[in-house]
């Protein structure tokens, strides 16, 4: 995707503490299916500021994350955390705001992040997982070159609309530095 002057209009970039990024984070976490994508509910400006501060301050040497910017707005997030330099592994996850979904952004961002992890961080094995009732996430993983490893039964527990606990099986994936690279386009990374 390129704009008229040939500069990329869709790319990965660091998060910043601008009002636009704050608004983007609040809007993104307002989606019903975003519960569980953060340690605390991002349902207030203060919580969104805390979420952003983690990525803006970059104090955690075991995590790298980028905003997915599209046409001047942050519309998603891709990250590798739990980076383990001893074994060269990390945990990958992603989200895209509902309005920007279905355009291949998550897959292009995840493939770019994987390249970044292998080439810039020297990692060897990337892992990710999704609840089995989230097939779109599985499509993203496979388009980005991740391979299914198996099912972890009853791994996650969330409350339903009646505040009752429900357990979910989880499908696990990995991508090794030596696996075939996917053929899809990657988003450029502006570091
Ligand atoms: C999962 C998510 C990141 C996908 O973002 P996206 O930008 O729409 O993803 P992409 O467009 O790159 O790819 C989505 C793929 O899933 C497919 N898909 C979408 N909904 C689907 C469904 N209900 N069942 C099966 N496949 C589905 C799309 O067709 C597409 O595949 P295709 O390109 O082969 O057609 C987004 O829905 C999201 O943020 N969900 C909430 C957070 C989340 O679940 N994150 C993952 C946590 S493990």
Summarize the structure.
The protein is α+β, with helices and mostly antiparallel strands. Helix content is 25%, strand content 33%. The N terminus is likely disordered.
Annotate the secondary structure layout.
Layout: E1 10-13, H1 19-28, H2 45-57, E2 64-70, E3 73-84, E4 89-96, H3 105-119, E5 125-131, H4 135-143, E6 147-159, E7 165-176
Parallel strand pairs: 4-5
Antiparallel strand pairs: 1-2, 2-3, 3-4, 5-7, 6-7
Helix pairs in contact: 1-2, 3-4
Describe the structure.
With 191 residues, the chain is α+β, with helices and mostly antiparallel strands. The protein has a single domain, classed as Gcn5-related N-acetyltransferase (GNAT) (Aminopeptidase, 3-Layer(aba) Sandwich), CATH 3.40.630.30. It is built from four helices and seven strands; from the N terminus they run βααβββαβαββ. Strands 1-2-3-4-5-7-6 form a seven-stranded mixed sheet, with helices on both faces. α3 (105-119) packs across α4. The chain is globular. Coenzyme A (COA) binds next to β4, α3 and α4.
